[in-house]
Amino acid sequence: MQRLRILSCLITILLIAAVDSTKDTAVRFQLTHRDTLLPKPHVRSIEDMVGDDQKRHNLISRKRKLKEGVKMPLGSGIDYGTAQYFTEVSVGTPAKKFTVVVDTGSELTWVNCKYRVRGKGKDENRRVFLAEESKTFKTVGCSTQTCKLDLMNLFSLSTCPTPSTPCAYDYRYADGSAALGVFAKETVTVGLTNGGTARLDDFLIGCSSSFTGKSLRGADGVLGLAHSDFSLTSKTTSLFGSKFSYCLVDHLSPKNVSNYLIIGSSSTTKTAFRRTTPIDLNLIPPFYSINVNGISLGNTLLDIPRQVWNAAAGGGTILDSGTSLTFLADAAYKPVVTGLSRYLVALKRVKLEGVPFEYCFNSTSGFNERNLPQLTFHLKGGARFDPHRRSYLIDAAPGVKCLGFVSAGTQATNVVGNIMQQNYLWEFDLKASALSFGPSTCT
Ligand SMILES: *[C@@H]1O[C@H](CO)[C@@H](O)[C@H](O)[C@H]1NC(C)=O
Ligand SMILES: *[C@@H]1O[C@H](CO)[C@@H](O)[C@H](O)[C@H]1NC(C)=O
């Protein structure tokens, strides 16, 4: 990581906005929950969601191990593809719109794309970016330092038959899917809070000539918001300031309910923030890491060993928009589930096949959400995160609710997933390394 940061200072990635004053404005993306974009929303079950998530969690843990010493083999890239929230992004000149997964765990923004391919071919109803029809598309050469060193972390390949050959990448997803393509500098057009648009020139994108995978269903690509020199959030910092924020509507919301991802400061969101905690940008890169001190149920602090929350000891916690469920290391998972289940003993337990939730129950009679104690994450600096009860009581099947935590194993990265984050407004300040949050209806 150190080397990547130093070297990336040597290359200048220009961002030029076609607006004079950007001080009072910010970039705005409309966010939609993934299920609303699928042809039959009800088909995507909690099982699918959980399956994707577990693979992703394995990848998060594996990526950490790789970063901690073991040399990563060139040409066998891995990434983590699951996410639940989509937005639209415009790429190229003239600009074309694409539906992309919003992922705070991905570094690269990429779209389904054709470059130097003969014949149109069939493209299973996905939108495709025809690179040669864009006046601003410039591939990154495979002999450049950018390709050979800076993009190594983004899984660039070492193959380079001629210096003008584009720098290629090969992402291998854990579920067997893959994204193959070339890196390019391209113009991305974004909508602004004042109703206008801004052009971000020479932004690094991936032109994916092929990709497959369940986790990318319904998407034309990915919008990378991780903490990385190449992600959109880093690129917009100089123009719109160092903040970005989002509010995730309830994952069971009807189709017509959506919200915005804001890059820059948003005056409308300020009032909602009541709590702030430090966010650690270098602890579990490229993820946004928070420091948890403990979890309580009602007024009772649970007995959880401190090393669970310690990233230096292999634990630690990330906040991730691209994982739907919440993963806890065993030593935290057990007291949480045991503690909550004490309030559910009168209800009939149900065994659900194909879900990793341990504790599910029949919620059709005698269940009152209010009888459950409030679960609180105590964060560094004294801030408390009190997720809504329906964020940890998941509707897993008709008439069945489950305690929405998944065991992550003995030593693991804890992940606060997007269901736990729902109906809260989250603002990441990359300069101040601070996360502000507060409950919100997201409307
Ligand atoms: C969404 O649609 C439902 C019914 O179709 C309607 O009652 C509701 O007001 C709509 N909500 C918004 C935010 O447009
Ligand atoms: C829940 O309990 C009710 C009443 O006893 C029963 O009719 C229903 O089938 C049960 N549902 C499940 C999913 O077990």
Descriptive report:
The structure is a single chain. Helix content is 13%, strand content 33%. The protein has 443 residues and is of the alpha+beta class. The chain is elongated and about 70 Å long. The strands form 4 sheets. The chain has a 6-stranded mixed barrel with strand order 3-4-11-5-10-9. Strands 17-16-21-22 form a 4-stranded antiparallel β-sheet, covered by helices on one side. The longest helix has 22 residues, at 46-67. 46% of the residues are buried. It has 6 helices and 28 strands. It binds 2-acetamido-2-deoxy-beta-D-glucopyranose (2 copies). One 2-acetamido-2-deoxy-beta-D-glucopyranose (NAG) binds at residues 254, 256-257. InterPro entries: Aspartic_peptidase_A1, Aspartic_peptidase_AS, Pepsin-like_plant, PEPTIDASE_A1, Peptidase_aspartic_dom_sf, Plant_Aspart_Prot_A1, TAXi_C, TAXi_N. Keywords: Aspartyl protease, Glycoprotein, Hydrolase, Protease, Signal. Belongs to the peptidase A1 family. Residues 1-21 form the signal peptide.
Largest sheet: 6 strands, mixed, barrel
The small-molecule ligands in this entry are: 2-acetamido-2-deoxy-beta-D-glucopyranose
Strand order of the largest sheet: 3-4-11-5-10-9
The number of strands is: 28
Strand-residue proportion: 25-35%
Structural class: alpha+beta
Low-confidence runs:
1-21, 36-44, 65-83
Helix content: 10-25%
Task: Please give the alpha-carbon distance between the first and last residues.
Answer: 38 Å
